[in-house]
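**User:**
If convenient, please work through this fold.
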Amino acid sequence: MGKKVALACTECQSRNYTANKNASRPERLEVKKYCKTCGKHTLHRETK
């Protein structure tokens, strides 16, 4: 089981999603997801 992380929109900074991340990968997770605040698909990055 991985580590639970929050994903935040790069445009409006709202935290919309959570994801499980493999603990052995040090780089930050980046996924293109739908942001309900922006109303479009944007890049979401892992936050601390």
About this structure: The chain has no helices and four strands. The longest strand covers residues 3-9. Strands lie at 3-9, 15-21, 30-35, 40-46. The mean pLDDT is 93.
